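Exercise 7. Given the components listed, write out the predicted structure of the assembled complex. Treat all entries as one system.
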Amino acid sequence: MTEARRDIVRDALAVGIATGAYGVSFGAIAAATGLSVLQACALSALVFTGASQFAFVGVVAAGGAPLAGTATALLLGSRNTLYGLRLTSLLSLRPGARVVGSHLVIDESTAMAVNRTDRDDARLGFFATGLAVFVLWNAATVAGALGGQALGDPRDLGLDAAVGAAFLALLWPRLETRTNRGIAVAAAVVAVGLVPFVPAGVPVLVAAGVAIAAGVAGRR
Amino acid sequence: MWTAILVAAAGCYLLKLAGLSVPESVLAHPVMSRVADLLPVAMLAALIGVQVFATGADITIDARVAGLLVAAAALLLRAPFLVVVALAALTAALLRMI
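Answer.
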């Protein structure tokens, strides 16, 4: 493996560790809400989208019907559809790889793919990150569901800041044009501004609307 | 409960597959390809905003912001990815110990 490829894999592992650690809190919260360990693991393995999973458990915890949790999870899952739009031509997966690879479309794997210009690098970034997060997220979910609070709070290790920093590092190469910098600032302001007023996950979707509006209105 | 979980699983997977299955010809249109390029920029930025400045339904300023500022400084200094992420974690963790 070339050095550049090794770097991609190493970064993928770093992202996997930081993100995977959150699986512990998901597992613990799911167990506290009354889900069985198997149910928590099913969510992490089959839904495999952090925001959707937390939203599902949040709805149930607040007393909502499980299917209402499903609806919220699906609403947030549309984010991954939008990611797919960008990944289609970049990854150019054959149908078989697409069927399997789709499952790994999440924030982190997308971010680790879209800042590559070479298709092979993009695929490596996508799959390495997707798999690293998948393995660690699921392992952490099991640990969290079984161990509850015993494993401690990811925040004590600053891991919540680490996830934000990882997103920034992944966004950074795309901030070279004034247009992109403007979009990024506008999207962040809109999203944060909406936080007190709309359910979890909606701010990010609205920010996607900012991108769509800019794409329609803009002229390169 | 299991029905809800399995329906959520199936639905979320199909949403992911749908995005990846949009044909190339649809993306050939300049507006579509511009939108597809800008989407991750906007969504990553929004994710950063929500990850760093939100706590539940409240906007908060806490150790995470310090971590983000340190990360930005490290990125300006062209530090490698791992260093950027580790410095942010370290900053937040240390601030919380005070």
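Discussion: The radius of gyration of chain A is 18 Å. Chain A has a mean pLDDT of 85.
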